[in-house]
Amino acid sequence: MGAISIPVGIVAARASKSVYEIVDHYSVDCVPDSYKNNKLAYIKDHSIPKNCTRYLKVVQKYMKAPIYIYYQLDNFYQNHRRYVKSRSDKQLLKVLACNEISSCDPEVYSNDQPIVPCGLIAWSLFNDTYTFSRGTTKLNVDRKNIAWESDREHKFGKSVYPFNFQSGTLIGGGKLDPNILVSTPISFRL
Fold this sequence. Notes:
The chain is mainly alpha-helical. The chain has two domains: 1-68, no CATH class; 78-190, no CATH class. Helix content is 25%, strand content 5%. The chain is built from seven helices and four strands. The strands form two sheets. Strands 1-2 form a two-stranded antiparallel sheet. Strands 3-4 form a two-stranded antiparallel ribbon. The chain is globular. 11% of the residues are buried. The model has no long low-confidence stretch (mean pLDDT 76).
């Protein structure tokens, strides 16, 4: 057992030394002082712009390509049963299935018409954008093939467009362009 565990431990220790972590809690710094105790009121207040620019500096350290960026959200329970079940796979697959909303509760209708895509998963679309630079030179980010091939080819229809999305009174996450397919990866919508 030791003959197996020691080499695995050495490999894991070497790999962890190559990881560089920056923690930035922008949800604290980007909220105005008057809303620090009531962030929900800040989110609902459409008169205040929600733009926030953060500059994070990575200590000069050699990094071998490819460099992977990990984005973490805390206190966002996307594994909660109600959240996971709140979507319609049929609706995302076929253009004629826009009325397949039985599993989309609570984000089902807006202005008495079905929402496409419906459900909490679609409603909580994040619209954070990122740019990376080295000095004054902007770095290119490869945004191709960020979704699994099975999702691109079999799970999401190639002719389903957003309809009646985020047209109600409470807006959450990003807007979807009704002229861009639902199957288009998020990074290409920005």
